[in-house]
């Protein structure tokens, strides 16, 4: 297995650490040989499990997988600190620890990704592993960035699931089919504002006809207060993560939707037909997103 690089600022982190260790004389040729032997053995096991260890191109693919996954785990365990990374790789089970860490990280973030349930690699999304996997001499490795993007999406999906369970009447709703974390929170906040903190049901448009809209609701400060009241029901760490994910126009867009709801109510009370109400929704939805507005047809 070739793990050396022409430039120690290039390529996967695993290869860069080995080059750093060689250049800084922290790794001897014997150390390098031992580490490469362990990586080769892992590649053989991986090829035997997922590919075919008797076909050279598949064995090479397994080797690329090991380099990428070990790089991922090595960064997670040592924080991209080269000296600490070298020290970890020198331990008897250092390479294995890095691989196991990287593999578990990919398993976690693949949970909500499309195609993961039918993956050749068990619970790991094949497209994500393809991004992580890399030849040792590639000029640029973006595996860590790809993992971070997948991790962000995973956290958003997990937060969306909690929002559904906390604020929605139908807790079996699948967050994969929602419009995203921000939209799910917005709908919960909008519903709670109008219907006294009730859990969200698919009846917003009908119930809207039967209530009076309080003028005090129509400000970003009021909407922000209602949002904070909702978030206070969640674990603080999760609430903080959701706050960080909210777009800078979240409250303004929710206020615009509330103003739209007021006009929609007036139109509905004037006995407008379902078709006219739907055209009115489409017109305003095309102008700007109706954040939190239920995407259901009211007949």
Textual characterization of the structure:
The structure is a single chain. α1 (13-23) packs across α4 (82-90), α2 crosses α3 and α3 (56-78) packs across α5. With 299 residues, this protein is an all-alpha fold. The termini are far apart. It is built from 13 helices and no strands.
Oligomer: single chain
The description of the largest β-sheet is: none
Spell out the helices and strands N to C.
HHHHHHHHHHHHH
**Overall mean pLDDT:** 88
Helix segment count? 13
- The assigned structural class equals mainly alpha
Helix content: 55-70%
Radius of gyration: 26 Å
Features:
single chain; 63% helix; mainly alpha; 299 residues; 0% strand; 13 helices; elongated
SSE inventory with pairings:
Layout: H1 13-23, H2 29-50, H3 56-78, H4 82-90, H5 94-109, H6 126-132, H7 143-167, H8 181-194, H9 204-208, H10 220-231, H11 236-245, H12 250-269, H13 274-287
Helix pairs in contact: 1-4, 2-3, 3-4, 3-5, 5-7, 7-8, 8-10, 10-12, 12-13
Short description:
The protein is mostly helical. It has helices at 13-23, 29-50, 56-78, 82-90, 94-109, 126-132, 143-167, 181-194, 204-208, 220-231, 236-245, 250-269, 274-287.
